[in-house]
Design a protein that fits this description.
Length: 456
Amino acid sequence: MTQGDGDGDVRADGGRPDHPEPAPAWASPATPPGYVPVYAPVTQDLGTYDLGTYGPPTGQAWGAAPQETRPLTQAPQPTQPVWQQPEPPRRGRGRGSVVLVAALVALVVGLAGGFAGGLLADSARSRVVRDPGFSLPSPQTGSTQRASGTVPAVANGVLPSVVALQVSGGGEEGTGSGFVIDGGYILTNNHVVAAAADGDGDIRVVFQDGSQTKATIVGRDTSYDLAVVKADTGGRKALPLGDSAGVVVGDSVIAIGAPLGLQGTVTTGIVSALNRPVVAGDQSATSFINAIQTDAAINPGNSGGPLVDERGRVIGINSAIARAPGSGAGQAGNIGLGFAIPSNQARRTAEELIRTGKSVHPIVGVLLDQEYAGEGVRVSAGPQNGQDAVTRGGPADKAGVRPGDVILAVDGVPVTAPEELIVQVRAKAVGAQVVLTIRRDGRRQELTVTLAASDG
């Protein structure tokens, strides 16, 4: 048998049984629709990009919203049909008279039913009981005080020192974040204030209470993506910089800033990973971050804002987020992969910018083979563009590094791409000693290198 259109069973040849079962006057309830997923699977490597400062993303949907499901009315059970021998059709004018009488009876019954229903409704309304003096008990007096170390307590202490930065210049406008580090100094990202760096721009500081003031750039560094601006902070306290070297995966963290211009936004999460090599920006303004990874929600506009621990100490500066393949920078938003510059790096750079207006970068003094695809990264076998593979008299040369050596790790942290080696070295201070694990002629050895300052 095949399913018919509601008139009864239909044989494969289109005929009907001699005694068809009357079709029920109801339809079987359909299966409720399922939920449509609201995520897009990631099948490629994730890219990273600066959190950006130029307005909210275009808002391309990641997936359809779940369809609403409605309860289905329980269908009545069909009654068992009574089978009887069909009577032969009657002939004559009596049949039309019966039909007319039945119609008149149905009309009278319908009118009477409607009138009776109206009377019943009026009667029900007249029995509604109201109590003009009724009131619910008043709520017990609450308190906005929270225990030390809780998210509300930390946020309450940190928020007054976190600012939104409204930046314009060069035909561009945008919003980022920052926070007070000492007196009138505010730390933020370089890409937040870059538009106003040519001197014809404007930087406006907006505090949590709505007050505003202007700021000027003290110094900025593209490679570290950090900048310091000076403004009248009205005596607001500086946020303490914690020791990012003491952070471990799983630590609870709180991100505060102005995502999409929404000032004073607080989100929470954990430290998802450490020493995550992140290269953000473009060829003209590339930054290298040995990042703290977090799943705390951060979005464009969080740039420059603090990532704090449970004691309100800044352990990172929110700087970049991952984006799904195929989504432009203007379409990217939080997907649980955010990256912050460690506070120890930020402290060194901020001090240098305040003292001299610029920051120095440590180097090892080697050129890397960009075509190498094996384990580690390989030092070029010979000169490139007039430069030696190993700078004569440089840190690597003094430590015994030779052209063609393969660098496998820095202080025990494996490196698998040239950018990772740069990030690991840039995370150190000038004058610091690092141990390079190298492979030469199939044998491993460790060399101690004292980092020097770059000329540029």
